Automatic annotation (TrEMBL):
<keyword id="KW-0444">Lipid biosynthesis</keyword>
<comment type="similarity">
    <text>Belongs to the acetyltransferase family. OlsB subfamily.</text>
</comment>
<keyword id="KW-0012">Acyltransferase</keyword>
<comment type="function">
    <text>Catalyzes the first step in the biosynthesis of ornithine lipids, which are phosphorus-free membrane lipids. Catalyzes the 3-hydroxyacyl-acyl carrier protein-dependent acylation of ornithine to form lyso-ornithine lipid (LOL).</text>
</comment>
<protein>
    <recommendedName>
        <fullName>L-ornithine N(alpha)-acyltransferase</fullName>
        <ecNumber>2.3.2.30</ecNumber>
    </recommendedName>
</protein>
<dbReference type="GO" id="GO:0043810">
    <property type="term" value="F:ornithine-acyl [acyl carrier protein] N-acyltransferase activity"/>
</dbReference>
<dbReference type="Pfam" id="PF13444">
    <property type="entry name" value="Acetyltransf_5"/>
</dbReference>
<keyword id="KW-0808">Transferase</keyword>
<comment type="pathway">
    <text>Lipid metabolism.</text>
</comment>
<keyword id="KW-0443">Lipid metabolism</keyword>
<dbReference type="GO" id="GO:0006629">
    <property type="term" value="P:lipid metabolic process"/>
</dbReference>
<dbReference type="InterPro" id="IPR052351">
    <property type="entry name" value="Ornithine_N-alpha-AT"/>
</dbReference>
<dbReference type="InterPro" id="IPR016181">
    <property type="entry name" value="Acyl_CoA_acyltransferase"/>
</dbReference>
Length: 243
């Protein structure tokens, strides 16, 4: 059972319908704005994780969809938007990380640290060989993120054997569009979503295109992280947080 406390924050699985609603409420605030519930058909198959402050208020949440192998990847949320045929031959357990969000009023970096600590414990407990999901940039315009996309194109594209292909009707093909652009490293780092930055620091990779998601008002890239490829020093640091 996942329960861990670090400093002011506690990470735990949602155990009741009320817990799941608390996560859905935070998701609505972060992704759609204002009060409400962000609900979809994938929620029932996922384990939901809440990170709460010392007063018990949710400050972060995400959900995990466990898959026995790549043969089940068609069940994932990401498979709605990306052709993931290449990953069907991945022969280890996988987990899709989705709907990750941090309350807009809470910028403490320890929140992201405990989130990754919780993910590390989950991965170790379940033998997951790959984490994957959609990493989102706010808004549907690419212009504010050109340096970030150019950096992804230059250094972080998926290995050919795993590369997602285009499926969604509206995409931004940044690897093609920005083939000649040299990224400004500082601007790229500043405009990169924190979750994606952490994925990349651990050896994660992305699709060569971003999906334009009008419903969620985001641009997102498919992101994969092979657990066995995480640099040993990073893996040790994560396990220190996981406890």
């Amino acid at each position: 059972m996942l329960t861990m406390t670090k400093g002011r924050y506690t990470a735990r699985f949602a155990e009741t319908p009320g817990d799941v609603m608390a996560a859905q409420s935070l998701r609505h605030l972060c992704f759609r704005g204002g009060p409400g519930l962000d609900v979809d058909d994938f929620d029932t198959d996922c384990r939901h994780v809440l990170i709460e402050d010392a007063g018990g208020s949710p400050v972060c949440c995400f959900r995990l969809l466990p898959l026995r192998s790549g043969g089940e990847i068609g069940r994932s949320y990401s498979a709605q938007y990306y052709d993931l045929t290449a990953l069907e031959c991945f022969d280890k357990p996988m987990a899709e990380l989705g709907r990750f969000c941090i309350h807009p009023g809470h910028g403490d970096p320890d929140i992201l640290r405990i989130a990754w600590g919780a993910l590390t414990r989950y991965v170790d407990d379940t033998g997951v060989g790959m984490l994957f999901g959609c990493s989102s940039f706010k808004g549907v315009k690419a212009a504010p993120y050109l340096d970030a996309f150019a950096k992804l194109k230059a250094d972080h594209l998926a290995p050919h054997r795993w590369g997602p292909r285009i499926k969604a009707p509206r995409v931004y093909r940044f690897a093609h569009r920005l083939a000649q652009r040299e990224p400004d490293a500082k601007r790229a780092a500043l405009s990169m979503p924190p979750l994606l930055r952490t994925y990349l620091l651990m050896g994660g990779w992305v699709s060569d295109h971003a999906v334009v998601d009008d419903d969620m008002n985001t641009l997102h890239v498919f992101t994969g992280l092979e657990i066995g490829a995480i640099p040993p020093a990073r893996a040790r640091a994560l396990r220190l947080v996981a406890g």
